[in-house]
Structure prediction request, 312 residues.
Amino acid sequence: MSPSEASASGTAGRRRKNSEPDDAGRSSRTNGRRRSGGRRKQEPRRFGRLIGVIGGVLVVALIGLGVVLYLDRGGEGGGDGSPPRTRPVAYSVSDSETNDINTVLATREADNRPLNEGELFGERSAEISSRGVAFTLRDFELAEDCSGAVWGDGVAEALAGADCTQAGRGTYVSDDHFGVVAIFNLADIEGSRAVAAAMAEPELPEGEESPADAPVTGFVMPPSGADPFDRLGSGYSAAEATISGHYLVVVWVQPTDSASVDERVSLASPLVTLGNFRDPLYRRLVNLKDDTDTTEPTGGTGVETTGPGTGG
Prediction:
């Protein structure tokens, strides 16, 4: 029975048949037309008010959802699990033009074997410890899309200009610190230096502050924004980029209990410890040098170099 129809006499819940006679004095039809009653006029108004209430609730809910999305996009944190877009308080670049790794691994042409997950994040890298600090690997990622490993147009453009083909990132935790490591596979050592420079904030004259509308320099993003990495950048943190031939390695650490960027502390030990993440590159260095040293001389023209070794 539709809501607009008048209730029929008889047993409740049973639809009355057309052949059943109406009760005396209570006929609901006159000349084939339904008897008009209060319910037929009241139901549409009640239904209209219900639609209005539901519509109002939906409007309020949509407004609230829009506010949440706006705040989420405008924030720097990664409380929802997304990596935070932030940068360290202190940043430095280590570049030694005379060390073997910069000489032997200077170009991807000489070291053309791609990086692999087992090499970077295998058993040897599951735990990294020294100087009384012990880090344990939490999350990692190795991807061909280098732009997804950083934020900031300047850094992304530098990676594209350096012909970046791989970006590996990992997160590490210890009792008192947590950290991020990143390695970029670039065409040559000059590209490595260019990307490291793109991550640095512009140097200003002493006593002069950066304009409020100056673009923010981009940096590396961790592969995960899960706790405690949702707090990365909200406390005092330091990072070091190391030129390693055609690879650029970035190590970034922050004390677990740091809650202010003004709480300056020494992070030398955790930076050096987590810097051992570069060990796979030294294994590549040894393999390439061994391959070069064991080749046969060719007719007095020097030593003929061979292709890259099989790696560690």
